[in-house]
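Final paragraph of the annual report: two paired records, presented back to back.
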Amino acid sequence: IMEASAIATKQLMITDDWKSCVNDVLDCLGRATDASRVYMFENHTDSNGAIMTSQRYEWTADGIAPQIDNPDLQNANWKDFGLDRIESILSQGHPIFGHVREFLPQERTIFESQGIVSILLVPVFVKNEWWGFIGFDACSRERNWSEVERDVLTTVAGILGETIRRKRGEKALRLSEERWQF
């Protein structure tokens, strides 16, 4: 996992467009963690200001059903799905992990419908804004995520957040320079 983290970090730091390498990063992390599925969700708000989330990227191991086209995972309102507890924990910068059978009933229903047995969700922050999260699913057997694994994957999520922040800054600078050119 440390080696995959180093590879992912290098890819994110040297790329001109982080979105172009994110699938390779998820692939590398998925194989290193022996996960069934690795994905990224991005937060946004609806017209009323409620926090919504949408799955943007996904890697799946052989034989695992992808969820990227699952309409329930696009423009999902955390509260409508009964995921308020998870939203609260992630938005405070803490990971969520464990065996799905130990989660609250409404959380269990959502995760089990996707074949998830154990899960690790790691928040991604851009500056101080909760941007979204990276998720790691175990679908074939229960998985215990060690503290070291959680820490390393939290570091990768932090690097991803910093990469997004840096790219946003570069884009804003470019736009500003274009406006001032005569």
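The closing record of the year follows.
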Amino acid sequence: KPINIHLLFSPDDPSHEAEIERILSYLTFEFRERKYRCTLAELAELGRAFDPQQTAGRGAIRAGANQFKTTLKDLRDLFRNDAWIRKNCLVAVAGGLGDGTSGLQEDDSFAAMRREIEAFAHIIFASTPSQRDFWLGKRRDADRTFIERTYRALKPCLHGSDAHCDEKVAAPDLNRYCWIKGDPAFEALRQA
């Protein structure tokens, strides 16, 4: 299954929207021997190519965005080659079984890939006590030294409502709310 990775951008740069569009346009996905860039126009084209019934703009964009996948290599290349993204973006990866890296633990042949994805991420989207203890280096078999050596740094586990419907807005699973002490600014998230 694909792994759910989020790019969290700082709104502090006055031209951040244009910069985000520029950055995302470097990512490509190939379908039927054509490369599509991650732009609204080309996501719509991909959506129509994949599902010709998607003639409306929003439906075509939704279909294209659902099919568009990128690779860890392409994401790493973005960060290696662009100072703006390194300064203004945090990477968060889902840690769960369904769409996260824990789903890779069932197949040992993905162990190295799982470590690489988790090392690349700044944040783990997870809320279970066992995940928090692991990423804070509080387990006997995975102490702080192990986490920092294996994954570059301790990682904050953040959880909220992955609101794909109105009923989930401000209603995280099991009422596991996440509070970050600080100003409501990107810098507080970065410091977490």
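The longest strand covers residues 89-94. This concludes the annual technical report; the extension proposal builds directly on these records.
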